[in-house]
Amino acid sequence: MDECIFCKIKDQEIPSYKVYEDDKIYAFLDMSQVTKGHTLLIPKKHVSDIFEYDEQLAADVFTRLPKIARALQTAFPEIQGINILNNNREIAYQSVFHSHVHLIPRYGKDDDFSIHFGDHSQQCSPEEMTKISQTIKAQVK
């Protein structure tokens, strides 16, 4: 991908602060550093988002996540938790269209990063929930 910034980073045409690399995966510090150690993990193969993954690519990417998370925890023992985020497509806040996973260490409630899910439990009736689950289940291949 000639214009992809993440392809240029993994090809070392653009400098990065690499934290991990193997034949399938490249992980580097996010330039924004939402919190100290904020890392991006990308597949070396250019795919835009999760919808382009096959099973092998998913295995390659998602089996490396615990390794990087543990490395962050060991490097920074004060980490109390970690957010692992994968935004897919513009509506879901993806801004670089090379699939990537954010590992955002959490140091405390005041580390200036939050995600809020409201209580939506009363929005769907049991019948609606059954219909939704059956619709999705019919498409899982």
TrEMBL record:
<dbReference type="InterPro" id="IPR019808">
    <property type="entry name" value="Histidine_triad_CS"/>
</dbReference>
<dbReference type="InterPro" id="IPR039384">
    <property type="entry name" value="HINT"/>
</dbReference>
<protein>
    <submittedName>
        <fullName>HIT family protein</fullName>
    </submittedName>
</protein>
<dbReference type="InterPro" id="IPR001310">
    <property type="entry name" value="Histidine_triad_HIT"/>
</dbReference>
<dbReference type="InterPro" id="IPR011146">
    <property type="entry name" value="HIT-like"/>
</dbReference>
<feature type="domain" description="HIT">
    <location>
        <begin position="5"/>
        <end position="113"/>
    </location>
</feature>
<dbReference type="InterPro" id="IPR036265">
    <property type="entry name" value="HIT-like_sf"/>
</dbReference>
<feature type="short sequence motif" description="Histidine triad motif">
    <location>
        <begin position="98"/>
        <end position="102"/>
    </location>
</feature>
<dbReference type="Pfam" id="PF01230">
    <property type="entry name" value="HIT"/>
</dbReference>
